[in-house]
Amino acid sequence: MKMQIGQNGLTPLPSGRYRLTVIKVHETSWSFGPALEWVFEVADGPYSGCQVSGKMSQHNSTGPHQKLGRWYHAITGRCPTVGEEIDTDQLIGKSCWAEITKCFSKQGKPSNNVELIPEPDALAS
Prior knowledge:
Blueprint (H helix, E strand, L loop, with lengths): L15 E15 L2 E10 L8 E7 L9 H10 L18 E10 L5 E8 L2 H5 L1
Antiparallel strand pairs: 1-2, 1-4, 2-3, 4-5
């Protein structure tokens, strides 16, 4: 069964590890101010084709060990350096792995928490 994940109230993905493809990255805003929203598509398995998204603050997430740096590393296999400029458009179409956790919003609605991770083989070494 395929589902579109988003703010349309459909059931989020079950918790687990998924291989994703970066579909788009765009500017948005949320309660913490300006943000980047990353949209991914599940690349294989029973949820292939389903989309999931994750957000990060544009102010607090830009250090090499913050979310942007961790996600860049998970997608490219390379840690960014301080002062390096990252073009998120160059990440579109790239494959990555994510640990997705099903959770609930403050309003009690089910959603997903997305954390990109290095390839599982790299985690074992």
